[in-house]
TrEMBL record:
Record Gene3D superfamilies: EF-hand
InterPro entries in the cross-refs: CML21-like (IPR052591), EF-hand-dom_pair (IPR011992), EF_Hand_1_Ca_BS (IPR018247), EF_hand_dom (IPR002048)
Keyword Calcium applies: yes
Domain of life: Eukaryota
Transmembrane segments: none
Pfam families assigned to the protein according to its UniProt record, in alphabetical order: EF-hand_7 (PF13499)
Annotated GO MF terms: calcium ion binding
Keyword tags: Calcium
Species in which this protein is naturally found: Actinidia rufa
Keyword set includes Calcium: yes
EF-hand domain ranges (all copies): 53-88, 144-179, 182-217
Protein name as catalogued: Calcium-binding EF-hand family protein
Length: 231
């Protein structure tokens, strides 16, 4: 079970043109209208250690809601999680989020998938037209980290359409590397790591899954699994 994937492997399915995808893109477009505090891709990279530390602290939250301690949160556990955190999403929204973040379609979210889901909740709860607009996750430090991730995506999304294109990624890297020859290859590698469905456009969910790998969140799962095997 879970979200650790081999390099180059794409998640099954796509949420393109679903209600969730539309809401996610619209929410990101609204957030993009405020601009980004990031000045370069290096700014994002320099924040990796702090983001990594903050996200790893989510492990306690994850284990609290993994009630059967099987290393994954199933749909019913997620619904109880939302209830305890007072996140007021409809059942349809919860089902959509679970389906979008359970990338291996094994009916259980591993730790990195849970982080991505919480960050999407943070983005979506800012939607003034949503039923859950006034909800609060009650985790200020974690929400500050999620805001940094949203800010990073807004920096990359130069045309503010809610997606990051290949040309936008190249532009962002070029701003950082001042036109070094390797910049194009770096940009292409980073973009390919994000564009799992190979459609040439990266949404916020794809960005988040790539980011968890960049900061080593998948390594946390590998370490836990190795510890269980040797116990």
């Amino acid at each position: 079970m879970g979200g650790v994937m081999d390099k180059g492997e794409s998640p099954k399915g796509s949420i393109t043109e679903t209600k969730l995808e539309t809401k996610m893109v619209e929410a990101m477009q609204r957030r993009a209208s405020d601009g980004s505090s990031m000045k370069s891709f290096n700014n994002i990279i320099l924040k990796f250690p702090k983001i990594d530390e903050s996200l790893r602290k989510c492990k306690d939250i994850f284990q609290q809601f993994d009630e059967d301690a099987n290393g994954a949160i199933d749909l019913e556990e997620l619904k109880r999680c939302f209830h305890k955190l007072e996140i007021n999403f409809t059942e349809e929204e919860i089902n959509d989020l679970f389906g979008a973040c359970d990338i291996n379609e094994d009916m259980g979210m591993k730790f990195n998938e849970f982080i991505v889901l919480l960050c999407l909740v943070y983005l979506l709860k800012g939607d003034p037209t949503a039923l859950h607009a006034k909800s609060c996750m009650g985790m200020p430090n974690l929400e500050a980290t999620f805001e940094t991730l949203v800010d990073a995506f807004v920096f990359l999304d130069k045309n503010k359409d809610g997606y990051v294109s290949k040309s936008e990624m190249i532009h962002a890297i070029n701003e950082t590397t001042s036109g070094e020859r390797s910049s194009g290859r770096i940009a292409m590698k980073r973009f390919e790591e994000m564009d799992w469905d190979k459609n040439g456009m990266v949404n916020f969910k794809e960005f988040l899954f790539a980011f968890t790998r960049w900061v080593g969140i998948d390594d946390v799962e590998d370490e836990d699994e190795e510890g269980e095997e040797t116990a």
